[in-house]
Amino acid sequence: MHLLHRFDTGGLENGVVNVINHLPAFRHAVVAVTEITAFKERVKAPGTQFIALNKPPGQGFWLYPRVYRLLRELRPAVVHTRNLGAMEFQLPAWAARVPLRVHSEHGWDVNDLGGVSRTNQRLRRVYGSGVHRFVALSKAIETYLTGPVGFAAERVQRICNGVDTQRFMPAAVPPEAWPYRRGEHLVIGAVGRMQAVKDPLNLVNAFLSLRELCPADWPRLRLVMLGGGPLFDAARARLAERSAADQAWLPGDRSDVAALLPNFDIFALPSQAEGISNTLLEAMACGCAPVATDVGGNPELVENDANGLLVPVQDSAALAAALARLVNDAALRQRLAEASLARVRAQFSLDGMIAAYGALYASAARGRSS
Fold this sequence. Notes:
Blueprint (H helix, E strand, L loop, with lengths): L1 E3 L6 H12 L6 E4 L16 E4 L11 H11 L3 E5 L1 H4 L2 H6 L4 E6 L12 H10 L5 E4 L2 H8 L9 E3 L27 E6 L8 H14 L7 E6 L5 H10 L6 E5 L4 H4 L5 E4 L8 H8 L3 E5 L4 H4 L7 E3 L4 H13 L1 H18 L2 H13 L8
Parallel strand pairs: 1-2, 1-4, 2-3, 4-5, 5-6, 6-7, 8-9, 8-11, 9-10, 11-12, 12-13
């Protein structure tokens, strides 16, 4: 049973989909504390169950009896919760004596960047008291769980995200939906939900700065931002205010990201916080030259000047300078893109991630008891 706050478009949820689709030896159920959206159509494993608890805002302890009954009915060998928003349901999983209880942390909470909240640390200690194994998706999260939160190192395992390099790969021919011409345009792109923690307006500001930083190249520069969210309208409005709307494509959420990504020349990740970013890994696998903020798990994926460029958080001038450097230096773009592609294939394969989760889940079949 994969138990998470909401099953909708996102990197965490995409990771769940990959695990389900590539571990057919297990029967899977997805339980969302709030709702399950059409995103569930990405799950191809036959027989997967989807259950939405439809919890309104606030504490979820009144749902414990319902979750307990659900656990006794489905009798899963493993319950795997993800992030603090679902972690409290480890308590009914402990009461139901689920053989293996797993909790993973994918990145910082939106309202607790850096994990500094003592309240959230205490909550994790309480909710995690009956958890057998914690999974950290980055070194920063692993250090947080074994440090401020205080879990024993032997209870924490690091499993980084992996990317399907058969699905995300360089492509020679753009899809019909692609609006630009390869060679004529130079595309700076981003993929992600347009919310504050992803800082999309930082990228918009940096792109607009290229008018002054790269005046000769400005007419051929294009900005692509795939994804919707609360800051979508603000991003479009800012581009329009600066007469750059004709040089940008913001189509909202897309189901064809794997086909569109290989057409980015530069991939930008301006987030204020990240775990191990699925979209960054996917862009690297598609042969894009990455520019990312120096935060969370990003430095585990991008080594500055080796396979990409790292910039400070919330610094549009630094982001613009890094983008300008790549715009002006085609050889550097190519070198970083090739190095990123090689790094993904060598260190962040989907097969490695699936093997790690498969081994972890299989431990329940070896008689793990509470």
